[in-house]
Design goal:
- 2 copies of one chain form a homodimer.
- With 163 residues, the first copy, chain A, is of the alpha+beta class.
- Chain A has a domain at 4-115: Aminopeptidase, CATH 3.40.630.
- Helix content of chain A is 28%, strand content 37%.
- The first copy, chain A, is built from 4 helices and 7 strands.
- In chain A, strands 1-2-3-4-5-7-6 form a 7-stranded mixed beta sheet.
- In chain A, helix 3 (95-109) links the parallel strand 4 and strand 5.
- Chain A starts with a strand and ends with a strand.
- The interface between A and B is large, with 37 and 37 residues.
């Protein structure tokens, strides 16, 4: 069985990354991104200049991706933000966990002092469970801040942990 | 005495707006913006394409400015975000209050259903008092998320109200 490797994303990963992130944007259930975003714009968003983007692969197959960036500039630049996505065909294989563990180490090595998730959709229970397992606290609840395509208005959570 | 007027900002307002916002960015006490930001970049930020920017003037003098924008895209696009700044020489004249009242009406007319302030620096007591007066609740507290130039680490608040 092949081991998981997490490495910096490069331009040659665009197609693999798009295959993961575009369906998740299209579903419109977890990210505050226009579901109709083009593939080009989706990649431009995920690999924007202010982000450092990684991919998780098993063998030759890219099955997850995440980015890390400063959540704010100036007096807020010691806190980072991440976005994670796992291929819909690869859930339950520990990819999100491995990426979160990796991200916490990368964040520390970059000198960040805390990590914040700005908008965790309240009915995304598997994500909330995972972030709590990794030491994140719910520090904010945004009432009815997300319009879920199936469930309608749901709260969004702000989650935070020191590093 | 001249009445206050609040109107859409235009390109001819750049110098007046810069005179208000650049010193506040330089101080680095209330916005998570690089204090050394150039005047050009400050204007580009404050009048970015995704923002609608207003100025408050008394007679010919622009004494305040604010922007309104969608806080998120996709399923979060019914919540708006604003940034407000009052000229340092004009505090205590009701300019921030007038802009907030104006913004709440603009937000409703644009179809937004809630307004969120993502990062209110915890020692900015006059701002917190004002937003509470206008019906905003503290829905989140980001521990030590701001490094204040004089006071060091302080919490930041997330404030929110339905419209």
């Amino acid at each position: 069985m092949n081991r998981m490797e997490i490495r910096h994303a490069t331009n040659t990963d665009h197609a693999s990354i798009a295959k993961i992130i575009v369906p998740i944007f299209r579903a419109g259930e977890t990210y505050t991104i226009e579901p109709e975003i083009s593939e080009t714009d989706a990649i431009a968003y995920w690999m924007a200049p202010d982000k450092t983007t990684f991919v998780a692969q098993i063998g030759e197959e890219v099955l997850g991706t995440y980015y890390i960036k400063a959540n704010q500039a100036g007096g807020g630049s010691h806190v980072c933000n991440c976005g994670y996505m796992t291929s819909e065909v690869a859930t339950g294989r520990g990819i999100a966990s491995a990426m979160c563990r990796h991200a916490l180490n990368v964040a520390r090595s970059l000198g960040f002092e805390a990590m914040q998730f700005n908008f965790v959709v309240g009915n995304n229970l598997s994500a909330i469970r995972l972030w709590k397992k990794f030491g994140f606290d719910v520090v904010g609840k945004l009432p009815a801040a997300f319009k879920h395509p199936a469930e309608g208005y749901v709260d969004a959570l702000v989650m935070y942990r020191a590093l």
